[in-house]
Specification:
The chain is an alpha/beta fold and 216 residues long. It contains five helices and eleven strands; from the N terminus they run βββαβαβαβββββαβα. The radius of gyration is 17 Å and the shape is globular. It starts with a strand and ends in a 25-residue tail after the last helix.
């Protein structure tokens, strides 16, 4: 599996054989995803002693997140999957962000700055051994998010939108989505046959009316 996420200011890639990570790239890319993605895929595959045709499944973080970043990642995976006739798995990036929190019992809420005084967010319930999404993927004003959060007793927030809601980022957690985590989620989805034809792959924008493709 080749797992990719370009939804934030980080570029993260992982080559995986089942649950084993063969090679990994995780680095701040700012606005350079377009120039870095293909060279880093090539470098990662060489490091992992793989060729692109050896990849059986392409797994990609579909956001929500940076509109431009998402387009770059999704279009790249579409092209590779289509040209090689290989299946694709789409993983919401908020799912991967939430799984950065380990050994926590309670509610995990990734929060990303969606601009226009709104945030992307989602709530997940964790009891250390099990992990379950308990809300829709949300695009909403900060005050509405906090109203939702008040329903729960113990909530940990993480993401670049944490400051917008008046909370402090946990300095011990790198909140950015990581490709190896995306790959692990991808394995779970593959076991359930949750594949997507490359031509049907689309980002999870949420701001659907303002984009040139349909969001979810």
């Amino acid at each position: 599996m080749l797992a990719i996420d370009t939804s934030t200011d980080y570029l993260t890639l992982a080559a995986m054989d089942g649950e084993k990570t063969l090679g990994r790239f995780h680095r701040k890319a700012d606005r350079n995803h377009s120039s870095l993605l293909i060279p880093m895929i090539d470098q990662l595959l060489k490091k992992s002693k793989l060729r692109l045709k050896d990849i059986d499944i392409f797994c990609v973080g579909i956001g929500p997140g940076s509109f431009t970043g998402l387009r770059i990642g999704v279009v790249t995976v579409k092209g590779m999957g289509y040209s090689l006739n290989k299946p694709v798995i789409a993983v919401p990036s908020l799912d991967a962000i939430a799984r950065n929190v380990k050994n926590f019992c309670g509610i995990i809420c990734p929060v990303l700055d969606a601009k226009k005084n709104k945030v992307y967010a989602c709530f997940y319930k964790s009891d250390k051994n099990a992990f379950k999404r308990v809300s829709e993927y949300l695009l909403l004003p900060v005050k509405d998010l906090m109203r939702e959060a008040d329903r729960y007793e113990k909530v940990i927030f993480l993401g670049d939108g944490v400051g917008l809601i008046g909370k402090e980022q946990n300095a011990n957690i790198d909140w950015h989505p990581k490709a190896d985590i995306i790959g692990m989620i991808g394995l779970e989805l593959a076991a359930k046959k949750r594949f997507i034809a490359p031509q049907d792959l689309e980002p999870l924008y949420l701001y659907s009316r303002e984009c040139d493709i349909t969001g979810q």
